[in-house]
Amino acid sequence: MLVCTEHALERGGGYLALEKGDQMAKKKTQKKGRPAKAGKLWTLDVSLTGGPVTREFAEANKVICRTIQIRGNQTLEDLHEAIFDAFDRFDNHLYMFTVGGTGPRPRDGRHFADPFALEDQAFGKEPDEDASITSIDSLGLKVDDAFTYWFDFGDDWWHQINVVAIEDEAPPGKYSKVTKRIGNSPPQYIDWEEEEL
């Protein structure tokens, strides 16, 4: 299990990787089916495990992790938005969460995708559910479970999400929120030609 304090990344081939080895604009969608009850409070460690970064950046940032708190009645789309903001991204793309999959880039497990990915089936497998209406509480996860988040099906930013804590009730306040940051956020896009000069 990756945690925010361990070395989570190895470098290989211009990409951060856990193991060696069409840009689409996203529109805001209206959230549906959110229960009225606030639900539990989830604390999640979100570690970057793959994506296009320079070797220099990877060497300077061995671990890139954000700890996020989110209410159980919030959706996977809310979690996507929290991760998007926590890693200082500016250009939205399709995304997918996988729960119960095997390995760092699972093809098996339950897939929950961006509503636009459901329409396009851009990644070749029809997802099980719509992330915009799937609550965190409904996933059936427990402390120490892990699941994946894949952002931008072209640049392939991969993340492992570890469930650190689940409290029975979320205290009053605004959620989601980042409570811990380790490592700098990598630039969303790299000018590879400039890097080679």
Low-confidence regions: 5-35
Which fold does the CATH topology refer to? Answer: Structural Genomics Hypothetical 15.5 Kd Protein In mrcA-pckA Intergenic Region, Chain A
Under CATH, the homologous superfamily reads MM3350-like
Q: Total number of β-strand segments?
A: 10
Question: Compute the gyration radius: what is it?
Answer: 16 Å
The helical percent reads: 10-25%
Give the CATH class: Alpha Beta
Quick one: biggest sheet? 10 strands, mixed
The CATH architecture assignment turns out to be Roll
Helix/strand/pairing class, anyone? alpha+beta
How many domain regions? 1
Strand content: 25-35%
Q: How would you spell out the order of helices and strands?
A: EEEHEHEEHEEEEH
Number of helices: 4
* CA distance, first residue to last residue: 38 Å
Q: Overall 3D geometry?
A: globular
| Oligomeric nature of the chains | single chain
Mean pLDDT: 80
